[in-house]
Each structure stands twice: as structure tokens, then as C-alpha cells.
Design goal:
alpha/beta, Spore Coat Polysaccharide Biosynthesis Protein SpsA, Chain A, 9-stranded mixed β-sheet, 14 helices
Length: 362
């Protein structure tokens, strides 16, 4: 019987008592058996450690590490330093996996040469109660994607990738909060970029991750995300001086458009307007995006004028699907929308994306 390669599942957890049990159970329910789990409690003040200890007692494959609060990047790095696996699979404490996630990614990785450093998949978006919100765009780009990953974070979130441990040994681990000047939120994107610069990236074209959207999640802390993005993109620019500056401008337009929609969804209208202005300054083409333009008007009416437009806002509040479209975080496709500006934008975005993939040779 062939021995299966070990996968080290690394789980950073900060005040994750509400969801950590579901995350751990999703790992134990994997159809791939050769795993170890390393949970790092990053200074929680709730029952996170007590819950994890219940699992440690029952399963020798699980270990708990406790440390003072140093941020998600440092917590993941602590787990990586203790990992023994050929492959590393991060999972955030509020997300969970579907049962065949590891098996299908390991199979993909094993079919590739050592030149492949990362395998990604697709995500289902869920709310705080686990209810279905939407689906990530089914991206299929593969190969050396250093250019493409600057323009789009196609991996999507930190709970998606399977890493080859040897790739992390070569390119390094996650940026810590301290290394980002107190910010965090894009350290996973930074790591994915570094891997894409040195290794091939592959995809399992299936929805295998449940990515939770909560008001308290890091992705909603848009100021920290923006500061972290600035660090990640500066580092990427320094390492990839041959890439055109337009790619970095387009990327900023997409990213700040995404942040503006996050702010609007959580009623932070002034922050929404601030990020919208950054999006348009970086890439004026974003003005063709009717969803962003609607958000601009609504945020101005509610945040600046103070006009009560709750009924109107609820009628046109962007859905998770619209949020992704507005941010440009996936390659555009022909849609059924009737707005001429949107159709023009989609053609521009498709041409840009095609050029980026051609540059990468994907």
C-alpha cells in the first residue's frame, strides 16, 4: 500500500470559539486521511483553547499551541514552524472545508512536478450563520501567474490554497502584523504572489471551501486591509520591476472598489467614499461600473448629506455576486446587464485580463 504524503493543516485562531468547532470537524471529515492539525491560539480571551483541547484529547493528530496576540500572519508562521508535512494547508478558524478538498488538491499536486508550488480551488460565500450568500468566480488560470496575481487575487482567500512545503522554504512565510506596520489582511495575497513568481500555480475547478463573511472579520476592517495591501503591492512592484505600471494601477482600482463596497455594506459611508475616490484615481475606467456609481451616489446621500434613503438603499444594496463584479476581482464575462457602460467596461477588462495571461504564458 502506497504511503500518502502528510498534509499539515495550520489553523490560526483568535477569539474563534463560535466557529472553531465547525472548522476542526471539517478537517476531520476530510476524505484524505494523512493529516496533522496545528491550531495556534493567538491570544484569545474566549473559550477557543478549551474547545480545541476537547479535540486534542480525542485525536493525537491535533496539537494546540498558545501564544500572545501577534496577528494572523505570525500565528500561521508558528504553525508552519511545527509542521512536518510535505504539503501545508491553511484554514482560518471561522471558515470550513468540504470533505474532498484536501484529497482533490493533493491529487492535483502529486500529478505535477516540483515546479508547482500552490494549488487553489473555488469558494462558497456564507454568512455568520452559515447561510449561502454566493459563489466566487470560477477562475481557471494556471501556470506562472505572477502578472495575473498582481491584477487579481484569484486564489480568493487564505483558506483556499494547498502549498508545497518546499515552496515555502524557498520563498518564505507570511508577513507578520509587525512587518506590515500594525496592519494585516493581505499577507496571504503577498505570499501567493511570491510563490507565483517562483513556481507554477494549478487549480482544482470545484467549490471546496466555505468562506465566512462576518462584520467582525478581518476583510471588513478596510483600513487595515488597505494598509496591508499597500505593503504587499509595494513589495510586489519592487520584485517585478519589469511589469507595466498600468497593471498596478488597474489592480488598485479593483481593490479599492472592492473595499468601498465592503464599507457600504456595513454602513461606513465616509470610508466608502474615501475608497471610491482612490479606486477612480487609480483607474478612471472604474467610472463605467454602474454598481460603483450607484454606491457613490447612495454613500454621498447617506454619509455626507445625511439623507434617509434606507428603503431605496435596501432595494439596491449590492449582493455578494454584485460585490465581486463591482470590484472587478474576477475576469469579466459577457453578462445580461443592459447598461452600455457596463458592456464597455467588460470588454476593456477582458482585454486587460487576456493581455496579462498572455504575458504570463498561461
Amino acid at each position: 500500500m502506497t504511503c500518502k504524503p502528510l498534509v499539515s493543516v495550520i489553523i490560526p485562531a483568535f477569539n474563534a470559539a463560535r466557529y472553531i468547532r465547525q472548522a476542526l470537524n471539517s478537517v476531520l471529515a476530510q476524505t484524505y486521511p494523512a493529516i496533522e492539525m496545528i491550531v495556534v491560539d493567538d491570544g484569545s480571551s474566549d473559550a477557543t483553547s478549551a474547545i480545541v483541547n476537547e479535540f486534542v484529547i480525542r485525536d493525537a493528530r491535533i496539537q494546540l499551541v498558545r501564544q500572545g496576540n501577534m496577528g494572523v500572519g505570525a500565528a500561521r508562521n508558528t504553525a508552519i514552524s511545527k509542521a512536518r508535512g510535505k504539503y501545508i494547508a491553511p484554514l482560518d478558524g471561522d471558515d470550513f472545508w468540504f470533505p474532498e478538498k484536501l484529497e482533490k488538491q493533493v491529487t492535483c499536486m502529486e500529478q505535477c512536478s516540483n515546479e508547482t508550488g500552490l494549488v487553489y480551488c473555488w469558494s462558497t460565500l456564507i454568512d455568520e450563520e452559515g447561510g449561502f450568500l454566493g459563489l466566487s468566480y470560477p477562475q481557471t488560470a494556471e501556470g506562472r501567474l505572477r502578472h495575473a496575481l498582481v491584477l487579481r487575487h484569484i486564489v480568493g482567500n487564505a483558506s483556499v490554497p494547498l502549498f508545497r512545503a518546499a515552496a515555502l522554504e524557498k520563498v518564505g512565510v507570511y508577513l507578520t502584523r509587525a512587518e506590515q506596520g500594525g496592519a494585516q489582511g493581505c499577507e496571504d495575497w503577498d505570499l501567493h504572489l511570491r510563490i507565483a513568481e517562483a513556481f507554477n500555480v494549478r487549480v482544482v475547478p470545484e467549490y471546496l471551501v466555505a468562506y465566512r463573511q462576518t462584520k467582525s472579520s478581518m476583510s471588513v476592517n478596510t483600513e487595515s486591509m488597505a494598509a496591508s495591501y499597500a505593503v504587499a503591492i509595494r513589495r510586489a512592484r519592487e520584485r517585478n520591476r519589469d511589469l507595466p505600471s498600468t497593471t498596478f494601477r488597474w489592480a488598485a482600482g479593483h481593490f479599492y472598489g472592492y473595499l468601498s463596497q465592503k464599507c457600504y455594506l456595513w454602513d461606513d459611508y465616509c470610508c466608502c467614499l474615501r475608497h471610491l475616490s482612490k479606486a477612480v484615481c487609480a483607474d478612471p475606467v472604474m467610472l463605467l461600473n454602474t454598481c460603483l456609481c450607484k454606491t457613490l451616489i447612495k454613500a454621498f446621500l447617506k454619509g455626507v448629506i445625511g439623507l434617509t434613503v434606507n428603503h431605496f438603499a435596501e432595494q439596491v444594496r449590492p449582493s455578494p455576486k454584485e460585490l465581486g463584479k463591482a470590484a472587478g476581482l474576477r475576469p469579466p464575462i459577457e453578462s445580461e446587464r443592459s447598461f452600455i457602460s457596463d458592456r464597455i467596461l467588460e470588454r476593456i477588462e477582458l482585454k486587460r485580463w487576456s493581455a496579462v495571461l498572455q504575458h504570463d504564458g498561461a
